[in-house]
Amino acid sequence: MPPTDELGAAAIDLDELVEVAGLLADAARRQTLAGFRRPMLVEDKGGTEASTIDGSGFDPVTAADRAAEAAMREVLRDRRPDDGVRGEELDDTTGTSGLTWVLDPIDGTRSYIAGMPTWGTLIAISDGTRPFLGIIAQPHVGERFVGIDHPERRQAWLQRQGGRSPLRTRVRSLDEAVLFTTFPEVGTPAERAAFERVRDRVRMTRYGADCYAYALLAAGHVDLVVEAGLKPHDVHALVPIVEAAGGVATAWDGSPGHEGGRLLAAGSADLHRAAMDLLAGVPDRG
Amino acid sequence: MPPTDELGAAAIDLDELVEVAGLLADAARRQTLAGFRRPMLVEDKGGTEASTIDGSGFDPVTAADRAAEAAMREVLRDRRPDDGVRGEELDDTTGTSGLTWVLDPIDGTRSYIAGMPTWGTLIAISDGTRPFLGIIAQPHVGERFVGIDHPERRQAWLQRQGGRSPLRTRVRSLDEAVLFTTFPEVGTPAERAAFERVRDRVRMTRYGADCYAYALLAAGHVDLVVEAGLKPHDVHALVPIVEAAGGVATAWDGSPGHEGGRLLAAGSADLHRAAMDLLAGVPDRG
Question: Choosing a second label site near B79 at 20 to 30 A (CA), which of A9, A56, B140, B174?
Fold first, then answer.
């Protein structure tokens, strides 16, 4: 029986969780780098025709993607057998500890397939209500962006080349902001129109960085990320990193964003509000 | 007086030129990394208002950009005083050797400013008719893509972590191709329409990788790059790397591409021809 705090909830050992999350990133690293920039088989998960960026049927999954998730689950079976697991590739498992790991072995599979070093392995832990620990790992560059957003501790840092530096968002006005997005690749026409209202107001827009854009936002190089069509495993790790670094990450309407859909991340609360105003009024997807 | 070959032209010592090009990359590295992911002053070179991606007035230059070019020129004054230099930032100098170095200290300044590790330092040597040696260096990732396309030697390789691996393009049909571009950021409406004819035929399109897209093409991860609005210093280094790796890099009409404008690079001659057919008929810029 794990120790419990005075409210009866299982006590959380944040240091142990950070350690295990690091072991997961190590395990995934071996598998993702084994496949990165190697000739590979690209399956079409949806069973539909491969399409150009304007279609929606093209969802590449690689052998490395599955092998990396399996390797992470193996670590969890050994070190955290009572926790649940939600992954991109394999079936969800329910735990008894109240904690759930949310895993995306390769976020940004299109970048991965094209050899771009801006995909990431996403690792998060949720207490059932929200993710409170997240990692974005980019093993080719050798970077890990880590965030803890928990009542006991709020901290975000970048690990690279054996060193550790704090992550801190910067504060910019909308007209000075650098915006990242995955548009034009995803999104309904209404979502795209809303995105363009933000794009037309900022200083610079960059495309297609996936999770890496949130890492750069947490590090204070990027001010806004606007995306749509996200899955829970795409988002869980991002929210605690952005929030612990001083930013705000929510759904476009300001509600909690970690279950996916439309995500807005900003370096400051003011900038988040300004972008949210421009993104308002998009109807729910049917 | 340098040694001359039987035609009276100055003999070229390729090994020495590769060595000096590496020293230039080293010198640029110190300056570019000193500014990368640091808070920085962004000037507007054109003297016009900063604008969104749809405008054309936003051309950020950083202190690092100029310092890196100055550092490279310093190496050349010491090691290759008789060669000419064309750079992005400083005045051209004419040499007496018949060789000219073409330098772009930071290609992809937008990526640089946003913290993305996909900008590059471009170093090329031209014999007055064409570039025959090129380097794309990405110092944050620690990569140098090098190509020699010269009658004496044709060779392309990636240097990383003390190792060296050959670069070789892959052969794919148009409908299987991965395409990179900087559109929607650059280009006239007619150029963009031509680009979209290619985009609509390929398997996947990715945006905004600048010179790094050509490095990935040479390495066999990307099949096509289509761009417009390029300057000579944007292009000189790319052509010998792509060609020495087995690809084809020309202007959209098939003429030599190294003086800039519209560039098309492909992993194979067949794919290059197929893309050129789709890009045909765009009128010259006025």
Answer: B140
